[in-house]
Amino acid sequence: MTAEPGRALREPGPATGDGSVPAIFLDGVRFGFHVDGRQTEVIGGLDLEIAPRSIVAFVGPNGCGKSTLLRVIAGLLPARAGTVEVEGRPVTGPDARVGLVFQEPRLLPWRSAFANVAFPLEVAGRDREARERRVTDLLGLVGLRDWSRARPAELSGGMRQRVAIARALALEPAVLLLDEPFSALDSLTRERFNVELLRLWERIGATIVLVTHSIAEAVFLADRVVVLSPRPAQLVADLVVDLPRPRRPGDLDAAAVTRTAAEIRAHLEGATDDAFAVAAGDVPAHAQPDQAIP
Ligand SMILES: Nc1ncnc2c1ncn2[C@@H]1O[C@H](COP(=O)(O)OP(=O)(O)O)[C@@H](O)[C@H]1O
Ligand SMILES: [Mg+2]
Questions:
Q1: Nearest CA to ligand 1 atom 5
Q2: What are 31-80's pLDDT values in tens digits?
Q3: How far away, in angstroms, is 274 Cα from ligand 2 center?
Q4: What pTM does this model have?
Q5: Ligand 1 centroid – CA 260 distance (Å)
Q6: Which terminus of the chain faces fewer neighbouring Cβ atoms within 10 Å, N or C?
Q7: Contact partners, residue 32, CB within 8 Å, separation at least 6
Q8: Protein residue with least CA distance to atom 10, ligand 1
């Protein structure tokens, strides 16, 4: 929720190590779904602090609660217990400070790319001129300025995902949550998108939380990789990716990548027998990370 004018803001939450207020602060967060009168625990008490303007990757087995966790952070699902704060203020419902890109782009099929990106601005009551300026900027940012009139069916999967990212950025969120945004893309397109995402991140100055099944992708993109347990999701490991930025294809210190990737894999294997299902799809366990990463 955005602050109401004239109402005092809540005191900012606890500061991070360098004294700044965390972009995301989770304290004892629990969530469960009710199915047939029974409660299924999905998030089992999570504490997490994410520094402003960082990129954090969440990895964990299928069905452990990653998508659910992003919805809780975005205020689309209410935490059953604990605190969710963004920039030091509680999230109590759908929140303009948080942009969410779902696993599938979920665009409105009858609307053009332009009108899809404009949608949140319309809902927020921005006037036409402000909307046009903002949408034009956003489509430029994601490389789709020439496709503004195209409908989703006329766009490739990757282009649709870019429209969804532009739409999520429309209200200038402090936090951008990306739920396996590239999983439907072929691996070459995906590598290019990873590089583009880093460029985008440098320009928007937002905090990014990314769910991915690719260990290599997590290491290439993130400052930190958070490994989650099988459902109910709990923190298994929180690893710092010690690679300099800007990260460029071929720029990576392969030893550091290999070390971090091996650590993540070990934690996933410790957490579940199903660990190989997590890494499956794009990075075989024997692959050299520097071959798997753009
Ligand atoms: N709307 C829902 N109602 C009931 N159970 C759900 C719902 N959405 C997800 N779940 C269950 O919650 C668990 C976590 O799902 P999800 O967050 O999608 O996992 P992940 O994204 O890590 O694969 C799964 O067991 C899933 O079946
Ligand atoms: Mg999911």
A1: 33
A2: 999 988 898 999 999 999 999 999 999 999 999 999 999 999 999 999 99
A3: 16
A4: 0.86
A5: 28
A6: N
A7: 39, 40, 41, 42, 43, 80, 232
A8: 33
**Cβ(13)–Cβ(30) below 8 Å:** no
- pLDDT for residue 184: 80
Kindly state if the Cβ of 66 falls inside 6 Å of ligand 1: yes
In a mutational test of the pocket of ligand 1, which residue from 43, 80, 231 has the highest number of ligand atoms less than 8 Å from its CB?
Answer: 231
Q: Domains in the chain and their CATH numbers?
A: 24-97+179-292 (3.40.50.300), 107-172 (no CATH)
pLDDT of residue 216: 87
Question: Is 62 a pocket residue for ligand 1 (Cβ < 6 Å)?
Answer: yes
- Report the side by side order of strands in the sheet with 175-179: 98-101, 175-179, 207-211, 55-59, 224-228, 235-240
Summarize pLDDT for 228-284 with one digit per residue, the tens: 999 999 999 999 998 888 887 765 556 777 888 899 999 988 776 554 444 443 333
Å from CA of 202 to ligand 2 middle: 26
Ligand 1 mean position, distance from CA 66 (Å)? 8
DSSP-based three-state secondary structure for 52: coil
Q: Which residue has the tokens 């030091």?
A: 88
- What's the pLDDT score for residue 242? 85
Whole-number average pLDDT of the chain = 85
> How far is Cα 57 from Cα 66, in angstroms, rounded to an integer?
11
Residues 6 or more apart in contact with residue 230 via CB below 8 angstroms: 60, 61, 63, 64, 271, 272, 274
Residue 17: per-residue pLDDT: 55
Q: Cβ(65)–Cβ(228) under 8 Å?
A: yes
